Amino acid sequence: MSTTPTTSESREAGPVGPDKADLQPARLTHGSLPRRAAPGVLLAAAVLGAALWLLGVFGPVAATLLAAALYTAGLYLWSRSVEGARKAFDRFVTAMVTSAFLLALLPLVSVLFTVFDRGFERFDAEFFTYSMRNVVGEGGGVHHALFGTLIITGLATLIAVPIGMLTAIYLVEYGRGRLARYITFFVDVMTGIPSIVAGLFAVALFQLFLGPAARMGVMGAVALSVLMIPIVVRSTEEMLKLVPNELREASFALAVPKWRTIMKVVLPTAAAGIGSGVTLAIARVIGETAPLLVAVGMTTSDNFNPFDGRMATLSVFSYTQYASPGVPPVFSLDRAWAAALTLILIVMVLNLLARLIARFFAPKTR
Predict the structure, then answer these.
(1) In the prediction, which pLDDT does 235 show?
(2) At what angle do helices 271-285 and 143-169 cross, to 10 degrees?
(3) What share of the chain is helix, strand, coil (3-state, %, to 5)?
(4) Are residues 193 and 57 part of one domain?
(5) Taking a C-beta distance cutoff of 8 angstroms, is the pair 214, 206 a contact?
(6) What's the pLDDT tens digit per position in 271-304?
(7) Under 8 Å CB-to-CB from 87, ≥6 apart: which residues?
């Protein structure tokens, strides 16, 4: 006898198992934050930190750290409530990286703001057209130091660039043996030497011929060239390595000598990178103080002859004005900050020039 229920009995008994109302579809997707959520949270945290700093509740460092913590925690909690744990953790790591970048940028912004704020008071025509000759208190300028910096840095560039470029050409195009390895090793060593060592080297070298009292601009140029040469070698070497070998092989296939291939094919192709590297090397050494203080000294008068007597430079001028202020000291300190601002502006211009060289003189691929 069959025990299978009929259709009507099955309908009356209902379905076997859980109720249909309990079977809810699983949520396979999550919501998403607005497109400007992260910048908005960052702006709100920055405004709150600035407000606490201006109200005197926290100092600038504590307010900045608090703003970074609020930005990271706020973005994470908001994302977790809307987007889920996985996306929230991704935003948490992104917020940590952004906060670390902004914290690292804060000292740079603080230095620039301080120098601009204190140095702009003496940024006038007199400051750039007068020297410190017979000036004790108010007045005076950096005319002698500005031209001294340009002359000494220009001489250092004339010394360092040919030596550095020829060394890099040898290492990339010709050097294959033990000598190339030794040169590479010494270039690496020279990259990390302290700047004062370069100044002492220049003093010791010229004292062999001119005596212990020798101080002149060319000595500072030699000291700066020692610091520039490894930078020029490294930048030029990397740019030459980026030149495709196919270009060299195509030139060799036309029976062009190797030296002419380097002059007409390799160097023009890498000219943009080499130019920007040389410009950055100049920006690296133009603000050196220790080697110039040892090798060149300081003077209050105009001296545009690097082979006769002491010369003034912006970095040494700023140091001496700040280290040995007059009475009252406010005028010397103003000149020191203005000289530092001038030096920063020169370095910024050189960096922008390097960017422009790399952009406009790079080989065209289209």
Answers:
(1) 92
(2) 140
(3) 70, 0, 30
(4) no
(5) yes
(6) 888 888 898 899 889 988 999 999 998 888 888 9
(7) 30, 32, 79
